Amino acid sequence: MQNFIYNQAIEFVFIHIIAFLEGLLVVHLHWKVNYTRKVNHFFVFASPYIIKIFFPFKETLYTQIAIAIVGLMTLLIYLKPIRTNIKVVGLMFTAFDRPEDRPHTLKWLFTQYLATYLVALPLWFLFNYMNHTEAILIIILINAIGDGLAEPVGITWGKNKYAVKALFTSTFYTRSLQGSACVFVVALAVIIGFYHTFTTSQFITALLLIPITATLAEAKSPHTWDSPFIFLFTGLGLLLVYMI
Fold first, then answer.
1. CA 123 → CA 78, 130, 171, 199, distances in Å?
2. Which residue from 35, 113, 159, 203 could staple onto 198, CB 3.0 to 4.6 Å apart?
3. In this structure, are residues 188 and 211 in contact, taking their beta carbons and an 8 Å threshold?
4. Is the pLDDT of residue 1 over 80?
5. Over the stretch 111-170, which tens digit does the pLDDT of each residue have?
6. What is the pTM (predicted TM-score) of this model?
7. Is-contact 175 164, C-beta < 8 A?
8. Are 27 and 91 in contact, with CB atoms under 8 Å apart?
């Protein structure tokens, strides 16, 4: 339990340090928020695995619920009364406050994280029951790296655009086929990297099913709501694969 408390405390601090450094890049070096936001996206999903190397703990349903609560708490300091009165918090907020997302930035972030955890917890329980704990890591890698690369690639090289809806607004936002292709390529690479966890028939099915499923989930999800859709449909796809 002590290791778990240390783990979560360090993660809480680490995530905000990353946001602070990203805020400096946006304000002083004029980095695009679209880039720093995705760097933050990567560390949100990757940091638990990095920190767990140094502070390991036994994963249970209760620790997963606690992790979800801590994850949501990381967003509470960005409430408007706090970020407008504490400069360092306002600086950190600039790391993921895309101008086109205002005034829904925090609302979309909070609801996306909440929805992701609500999807991820049942999947974690099911995959643990099936003795396929690697499945959650597969989904996280696809989401953290694939979706993390999609926006920067789309901004830099995305020539073929398409529109998607967003929650709480009638505004449409654009994505690109080039950006979405990142999800496909990363999903393909991740499945190949985990080939040893599948039987031959499962591996072939996963190669055919998971990359396209994850790509369509990202492509069809509402603006900023990629993660819960990728978790849900990629998770369902893996459940089908493991049943073969």
1. 29, 10, 32, 21
2. 203
3. yes
4. no
5. 999 999 999 999 999 999 999 999 999 999 999 999 989 888 988 898 899 989 888 888
6. 0.91
7. yes
8. yes
Can you read off the two tokens belonging to residue 191? 């499945």
- Confirm if 3 and 51 have CB atoms less than 8 A apart: no
CA 179 to chain centre: 15
Q: Is the separation of the CB atoms in 210 and 187 below 8 Å?
A: yes
CB 197 within 8 A of CB 189: no
Distance, in Å, from the CA atom of 83 to the CA atom of 89, rounded to the nearest integer, reads 5
**Distance from C-alpha of 47 to C-alpha of 57, rounded to nearest angstrom:** 15
Q: How far apart are CA 154 and CA 168, in angstroms?
A: 24
Identity at 165, one-letter amino acid code: K
Query: Which string of b and e fits 193-219 if b means at least 16 CB within 10 Å?
Result: ebeebbeeebbebbbebbbebbbbbbb
The backbone torsions φ and ψ at residue 166, rounded to the nearest 5 degrees and listed phi first, read -135, 155
Q: 41 versus 97: which is more confidently predicted?
A: 97
